[in-house]
TrEMBL record:
<dbReference type="InterPro" id="IPR025016">
    <property type="entry name" value="DUF3955"/>
</dbReference>
<keyword id="KW-0812">Transmembrane</keyword>
<keyword id="KW-1133">Transmembrane helix</keyword>
<feature type="transmembrane region" description="Helical">
    <location>
        <begin position="5"/>
        <end position="26"/>
    </location>
</feature>
<feature type="transmembrane region" description="Helical">
    <location>
        <begin position="38"/>
        <end position="60"/>
    </location>
</feature>
<keyword id="KW-0472">Membrane</keyword>
<dbReference type="Pfam" id="PF13127">
    <property type="entry name" value="DUF3955"/>
</dbReference>
<protein>
    <submittedName>
        <fullName>DUF3955 domain-containing protein</fullName>
    </submittedName>
</protein>
<feature type="domain" description="DUF3955">
    <location>
        <begin position="3"/>
        <end position="58"/>
    </location>
</feature>
Amino acid sequence: MKKYLLSLISFIVGFGCFVTFSIIGSEVAPDGTLIEPFFLIPIGYLFIAIGIITSIVSFFRNYKKSNKYKDN
């Protein structure tokens, strides 16, 4: 579980950014400008990408270690 902790935390934070964006919502100011927390969308995608990359790296490290012990 320790090896996948960074991946899991990244996924949780990424999805949390999307949920927070939809909870906060957007509104139109009296002067006609749109007010929304747009920064949460790219940050969410960034954390999900980090989670995917670390999951793949962890999987291949574990796969490599398991095959190393089978060969001996």
